[in-house]
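Quick one, T. Sequence first:
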Amino acid sequence: MSTGVKIGSLRPAAGATHAKKRRGKGTATGLGGTAGKGHKGHKARTGGKIPGWFEGGQMPVQRRLPKRGFKNPTRVEYQVVNVGRLMTAPAGATVDRAWLESQRLVRRPGPIKLLGNGELKAALKVRVEAASEKARKVVEGAGGTLEILQSRSQAAAAEAAKPRLPKTRPAKPAAPKPAPAESQKPPAEER
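Structure tokens:
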């Protein structure tokens, strides 16, 4: 007969488990009177939980620290690329997001802005969301073209600026009126 462990004979180790404390059920539970919650106070009440940010009534940290500056929630963060970084593009190439990502000049989503630092000798077709005036002159001076695309945020802002017309339901076509009968009443007898 084997003395191996069987799944039916598994038991918790001695002292690993204990009976659940039944709070508020009288003196027989060993927690009579205040049910193990002490006397009065916030934590003695039903639902008396204290959030992690509560500091016991002292001035909380978000009110003790000074406020500085302003962060615009609608600010658009452009990824900037200087014209000089486009020197590796062959003449006549289209420089857009796909090309810039392949050259690792742009690495995260969001609109791209072209700045005018550097020189450009090849004629390129550049397609970005924004460009400085100097960058435009450099690209066009080399014989290229610069196309400004509309970013998602600009498209959303333009859509929000459009006047909204009230929704109107299309008028139901009028039911055709029945043709008047020749005579609804029987003819009166002549006398």
